[in-house]
Amino acid sequence: MRLAVISSEDQLFPDHHGFDWKSIKKAMAYNKRKPGRIRGASTISQQVAKNVFLWQGRGWIRKGLETYFTFMIELVWGKKRILEVYLNVIEMGDGIFGAEAAARQYFNKPASNLTRLEAATIAACLPSPKRWKVKPLSRYVAVRSGWVMRQMGFLEPDPDVERIIK
Length: 166
Prior knowledge:
The protein has 166 residues and is mainly alpha-helical. It has helices at 2-9, 21-33, 44-53, 60-76, 79-89, 99-107, 116-124, 139-155, 159-165. The radius of gyration is 16 Å and the shape is globular.
């Protein structure tokens, strides 16, 4: 599950310090071109800061606090702890929070027993878990899980990724 969510959500997670500046710049340019359709660029660290310490929604005050908390958790917790917390608090379906709950709900087994494909399938819904379904399997999740599996193959040999997921 660790490798699947890094592959799906934040491939630069081992290398950044909480913020993916290149993706943030791209999202800002996109949002300027298409103001009605907002694209985000949150890292796993930023999502943890928001989900653990803040409220949902958008706004400059929340974003400022998210920046502060992201900086602090990167400084204090480290990547393994950030990923552990992420896997325990992220919504992975409508009202399904955490990898363990998702594994039991979707595949009737503990998260530690998920196959690579099952983990990739759950991770594939993460950009929008209420919209893209694992059960019944939406077309988007079916296609995206194949992409996540390929990314897992590319990332797994990386020593920085390996340090975090082992």
